[in-house]
C-alpha cells in the first residue's frame, strides 16, 4: 500500500469513527474489565459478608471480592454435598445520562452475568429475567429513563439458575462456578430509526453479502456501504432503496482484496449507512471483516479459501486467578500471542469468550470454534433457541470463526442445530464435540491406534476437539510427535485441540490470596495460572513449528546443507527467514566467565552463551508441504564451536522456533576440554604426575591405594575416595584441602538391570589409582580411575554378553526397561542449584524431549509441583530427568561437584519430583523414579497423557533390550571432579 493510500485509509477510518461516535454513543455503567472497574453497592444473601449492604467492583466475580462461597463444578460428585453455593446478589448504583439522548433509542447491555439476571431501572422492570451466564443480552430502556437527571439501576443476580437445564448445562460442569456481573455493562444510544445489527458473508473472491437489520424505518430510506481501504464507487454499490422489511440484503463485489488467513490476517472495515430521503446519514454502523471462504466438504476436509485446514489447536477458558472469568483486552492479546508462539493456529472453548478475545484472533490470526455452553447436559429448546441467537448475533462477523459448536460431550440439543444456519449467512458447519456427527468426527482423547471404523480405517473427516490432556505435568508435548506424525499422514485429518491452555487456579479471597486449582480438577494447562510456561510449551512449539528442520547429525563431513520442510498452510518458505549461530560452551575445566547471560523460562533459569559466529541461512522457495535443502555458508571457525543454533522466523519476522545441534559429541567435547586444560587427551582425564591442578596450588604426587577388611580407598593429593568391598559402592568422598565430605555415595547401584559383584581388585597404574569391579548379570565391569590431580573417572561396560547370569533371561528375549543405568545418593538438602551443559532448561520425559535445546543452563533449586501450589509457581522445575548430558555442576554451599559425560545420550536424573498432594485417589501422576538421588541413565520412562502408555505411540513405549553374542555392549563413561 502506498503512503498516500495508507494515509487516506487512516483519514477514512478516523472519519468513520467520528460518524459512529455522533450516531451511536456508549456510556459505561461499569468498568471495562479486570483492572478497570467501577464501584457499585452490593448485598449477598449467604456466605461471607452476607446480609448487609457493602461495595463491590463491577465487573467482577463476587467470590473474589470477598462475598459468598467458592464452588467447583463437580460439587455433585462430592459425598454429602446436595447443592452448590446458591447465594443471590443485589447490585445498585445511580447514573446520569445526557439530556440530548431524549428521543433516541436507548438499550442497556450486559456482556455477561452469572447466572439469572433481573434488571430494574428507576424501580421498573427492564424485561424478563435473563438466564444463561456466558452471553450478551440487552433491554430497551428508552421509556424507563430520566434524561438529564439521576437514574437508579438495580440488578438482582442468582448464582444458581431457576432453570434446571441452565444449571445442568453450566453449573454441573468441570470448571469453577462463579457469581455476579463479570463482564461490562453499558448504555447505548441510537437514533429512533437505526441499524440494529449486521450479518456479513465476505468471500475470498471479493463477493460481499450483508444482512442489514433495521428498526423504525418507513420505506423512504436507502442504504449504502463502503469497505476500507476499498470504496464502493460503481453503480453496483450506489445507495439501495430500503423496503418495509426489517432485514435488507446488500451485495457487492470487490476486486483486489487480500483474503484473510491465520497466517496473513488482513482485515477491512465495513461501514453501512442508513440514508434519509434527502441523502443525509441517519445512522451508520461499522464492523471489521475479513474476506475469506470457509467450507466443509464431507469425506474430504475443512477448507479455508480453497486450502485444506489442519488445525493445531488448544482449548482455552476465559480465566485469570485475580478475576475468575473477568478478563480484559490486554489479557486476550497476551493469550493470543502466547498461543501463536506455540505455533498453534486454532482455539476452542466451552462457551463464547469475551469479544475482545475474538477481536485479537481476527487481527493476530487464530482460527476459532465458537461453542454454545453445555458440559454433558443441554439447555432446553426455548432457552437454547434464545442463547444461540444471542451468541451468533454478537459473533457472526468474526472471520476467525470457522465452525460453530452445539454443546460439549453430550451437552447438545439437536433441536437447535438448524438455528445456527438461521443466524449465520455464511452457513458454517456445526459440530457436536466428542461425537461423530454430520460427517465430522470429533472423538475426544483418541488412542494412537484409534479405530475400528474411526479414522484409522474410517471415512469421516477426523478432528478430535480434545486430545493431549495436560493434567499436572502429563500431556500436551508428551507423545505429541508420534500422534502428530500419524494423524497428519491421513488425508481426512482436520486437526485437533489440546486440553487445556492454562491452569485454572483461582486466588482465594477466603484463604489470604492462596491459589486453589481444586486438587486435580483444574491444573490442566500448558501454562500456569499466571501464564508461566511449562515444559510442554516448548515441546509443542518445536513439534508444531511450520518451519521444520529434518533430523540432522553434524559430523566432520558436514558442509552446511540440511533438509527443511514447509509445514505452513498458506505461506511460501521463501517469505520466511532463518539465522544460524555457532555457540562455544566452555566447561568448568576451562571456565573464564566469558559469554552472554540470557534469562530464559520466565526468569526461572538462565543460559550462558558465547557466540563465535553467526549469519543467515539460505532458505529455498518451497510451497506448503514441500521439503528441500537449506544452506549455511560455514565459517572457518565452525568446528571450533560446540553447538549449531538455528532460529527460524515467519514472514512477519516473529521467531517461530529454535533448534540446536551438537557440533561435537560427548567424548570428543570432553577430550577437547581436557586438552585445553593441559590434561591427557584420554577421556579419563589421566595426566602426568608432574602436572599442576588449579589455583589451589596443591602439590601433585602419584596416587596410592589403601585396603582394609571392609574398604578399598583410592588416594590422590586432592581427593580421597573409599569403596565398600561388599558391593563396590562409594562410601565416602573427601576433599583433602579442607577435609570437606562430598556426600555423593551409595553407588553405583544398578537401575533396570541386575548387577552382582563377582570380583574386586585395585592397583596403581602410571601414577593413577585404579579400582576394577567385575559383575555377574547385565553389567560386565566398572573401572574407576583416580588421577594424581584428583579427577575420578568411571568406565562402565553394560549389556555386552548374551548369557547375563541373571541380568536378562537369555540372548534372544526382548526385555522391557523403563530406566537403565546407574544411580547414587546425594542429600537434597545440600543442593542449591545446578549449572549444566546439555538439553534444557526444562526436564524431559522419554516422549517429551523436543523443545529442550542444547546449551549451558543454570537453574536454582526449587520444589515446584507442576500445577499445584498456593503461590505463584517457579518454572522450570528443578527435579527430574535432563537430556544429553555433557557436564553438570551440582551447586552447594558446602559440597559441590561436577560430573562430565564421555558417553553420548546420557540422561541426568536429579532427585525425585514430589507428587501432587491433590492427585486423584492418591494415584501417582509420574512413573516411578530410580532409587537414590542422582542417576546416570541410558533410557528413561515416558509419561502418560490421559490414556495409558500402551495406547500411545512408539516413542512412549518401554525400551526393548535384546543382547546377542558378539555385541560390544553399552558404555557409560563419566568423569567426576570433586575438587
TrEMBL record:
A Gene Ontology term for the protein's cellular component: beta-galactosidase complex
Keyword Calcium: yes
Cofactor(s) demanded: Ca(2+)
Reactions catalysed: Hydrolysis of terminal non-reducing beta-D-galactose residues in beta-D-galactosides
Segments forming domain Glycoside hydrolase family 2 immunoglobulin-like beta-sandwich: 193-292
Domain of life: Bacteria
Span of domain Glycosyl hydrolases family 2 sugar binding: 54-191
Signal peptide: 1-21
Residue span(s) of domain Glycoside hydrolase family 2 catalytic: 302-506
GO molecular function, one term: beta-galactosidase activity
Subunit structure: Monomer.
Protein name: beta-galactosidase
Organism: Bacteroides cellulosilyticus CL02T12C19
Lineage: Bacteria, Pseudomonadati, Bacteroidota, Bacteroidia, Bacteroidales
